């Protein structure tokens, strides 16, 4: 590895977000057969938010959450901490079946989800280092800048007002974060920084306090009408809700539903000197490269910086506890120090990876089949932190049989075709990311146009 590693550098161990407190000791597994009203599989944000809103709405319900490791083991305990009001998918695609107004309503609900998470965190006493500093998206080449401007024009058609997103002048941009080589930036207020694992941990505590049972070290081996089967016993329940996002490929019968996409992160040591960088507003930082990055300034003054790494493992294999390849750590460090040369004063303290779920059409779904009692939500394609809250509220309404504004949103009950069998899946995803890297390299030469290679990449996988 070429990146400079801090003493005590950790690779994996779920994520940096557990470093201060230690990875939680999993609670007791399910030890026998039980009956419940609702069984939820997976204790990430989706499962926990669903349990939270269901139990709040009807405290008499017996709700059990079954988790193979511990609450927050998956992407919910590993992500970049962008609590962002971004649609989990393309507005255009959501509008196809339901019309433009429905897609715009969905977008407004996503903005609202950011505030709803902040509201519940305050009400439940969850200290997740939340700061609503907005989202700064930078462009570092003329082609990226052209895309950024075009994106804002497009967003106006999908309900984004100048108060929701706007182009910044150079002075406003550098007053926020000074990214080396940035030529343009947009800013949106609809994004907050969170410490992801603290949000998951706090949510799990709040859900337990309401009386929901969470069984950990409890892998569900079969999901069927009326039951969820685990090695220690079966839960018989009228409703069984699958909330396993990036892990769904391992659930029997769902291998090709959602592609498990890897995302990797590094975190630096604390930086003493922020003068050259700024970042006083704790904005979330992204860019408009095809092989994009995402970052936050953490509550303990580090830079947490993420990107794609090795995007996908053959046959939808999953990582275990977040171990990350040397190549990825080096690539992320290289990019981080290109953005922030001043960060060279620090070293890499931790690296980790996780999986998120990508449906074939890159748009998320919330569904409940009333005939079978089986439901599911996920496929947020990397925008799951806020979306899981909206999904949880929506799944709760569906489970309660309520017709609400949420149950008519365009992501409800979508049917999406499955991914191709291997080796097509692997070839497609790897070709896409290879072309994205080539397109970024071409655009770095200064051309003002988006590389045709990126368009070919989008065509290959329907991105
Ligand atoms: C590195 C990384 C960075 C990201 N950054 C961002 C970001 O900044 N902003 C954003 O919006 N999104 C981001 N995402 C995506 C976001 O974190 C996820 O979309 C979201 O957390 C999904 O929540 P979930 O509850 O649906 O899934 P998870 O959090 O993955 O939870 C699923 C749970 O199901 C459990 N499980 C799986 N199979 C079984 C089984 N058979 N039996 C029992 N339990 C099972 C798992 O152990 C896991 O705990 C990122 C993802 C990654 C990996």
UniProtKB/TrEMBL annotation:
Domain FAD dependent oxidoreductase: 37-398
One Pfam family matching this protein: DAO
Cellular component aspect of the GO annotation: cytoplasm
Protein name per its UniProtKB record: FAD-dependent oxidoreductase
